[in-house]
Write a structure and sequence with these properties.
The protein is α+β, with helices and mostly antiparallel strands. The chain is built from ten helices and eleven strands. Strand 3 and strand 4 form a beta hairpin. The longest helix has 17 residues. It starts with 8 loop residues before the first helix and ends in a 7-residue tail after the last helix.
Length: about 280
């Protein structure tokens, strides 16, 4: 039986080469080079943890980035292995990130390319950890680290983020967790920013673009950027960015924008914005 078939059957076929080591299996399109294989084997030998571990692969031969996510419940292990949904229209987050990353890269979106994926098993044969392997975005720094090093250039980060947001929408992609740390800024400016961490993301159009944009612009301010810029100045930058979306309903946009600028919006509520246009203030 081939695991990870549920929402990923096409990916399993596309990534048809398997690297097996101990109780782990990784899928690639082609066999990795020998130094890369040895580094991957060392990765698979590492003892799992209770939290996700994200780090560049320890290999000077190739630039790869790895994520290792523990599957911490029996239901989650079975869903990921056999393809059951967590709830209607939502797979487990590791599967969402895998599928979204592959699809976004196929569309030419500015994201790290998917290189491989796989899983480890425990001694009972159940899935234990899930791996996602992407290209390492060398020559880039995540936006949170970038702006903390140069707070006086926060406007550059914001305009880069808004340009990336528009680019993703043109590719039919709505990133619902696009904050500074999930934006990779090129070390040499000017240059195009790239998006990472696509687990809370949709690769299809929404009937509620105004609400979705309202959330995205508001969330970017709420998630730490408010520390570096006044709200009035940020609003001005948003107004400039909205010229690229001339047909949105401003009343619907403003409703979600004002809430999202000032309140924590959880994952479930973000998906409701995209799917239903629903967002209500808790206050």
């Amino acid at each position: 039986m081939c695991a990870v078939t549920g929402g990923c059957k096409d990916l399993v076929k596309e990534f048809s080469y398997t690297l097996n080591h101990r109780r782990a299996t990784l899928h690639f399109k082609t066999p990795p080079a020998c130094p890369t294989t040895r580094a991957l084997q060392r990765l698979m030998e590492q003892k799992g943890t209770s939290k996700r571990v994200s780090a560049p692969l320890d290999c000077t031969h190739t630039a790869l980035f790895t994520k290792r996510q523990p599957l911490d419940s029996l239901r989650k292990k079975l869903r990921v292995a056999f393809g059951g949904a967590k709830r209607p229209d939502l797979n487990d987050w590791v599967v969402e990130e895998l599928v979204n990353t592959a699809e976004a890269h196929k569309r030419g979106a500015r994201v790290a390319p998917l290189v491989g994926f796989g899983y480890s098993k425990d001694r009972f044969g159940l899935m234990e950890d899930f791996f996602i392997i992407t290209g390492l975005l060398t020559g880039h720094t995540d936006g949170w680290e970038w702006v903390n090093a140069r707070p006086e250039q926060v406007e550059t980060l914001i305009t880069s983020a808004f340009e990336l947001l528009h680019s993703l929408h043109q590719q039919g992609i709505s990133h619902m967790d696009l904050w500074a740390a999930n934006i990779m800024i090129p070390d040499r400016m000017p240059g195009a920013a790239k998006a990472i961490d696509l687990e809370n993301c949709f690769c299809r159009p929404t009937a509620y673009l105004a609400e979705t944009l309202g959330f995205q612009f508001g969330f970017f301010y709420f998630r730490e950027i408010y520390r570096f810029i006044t709200e009035a100045h940020y609003d001005q930058l948003v107004e400039a960015a909205l010229t690229k979306y001339p047909d949105i309903d401003r009343a619907r946009f403003d409703h979600c924008y004002q809430i999202s600028k000032h309140e924590q919006i959880g994952r479930k509520d973000r998906r409701a914005v995209f799917l239903e246009g629903a967002l209500q203030s808790r206050w």
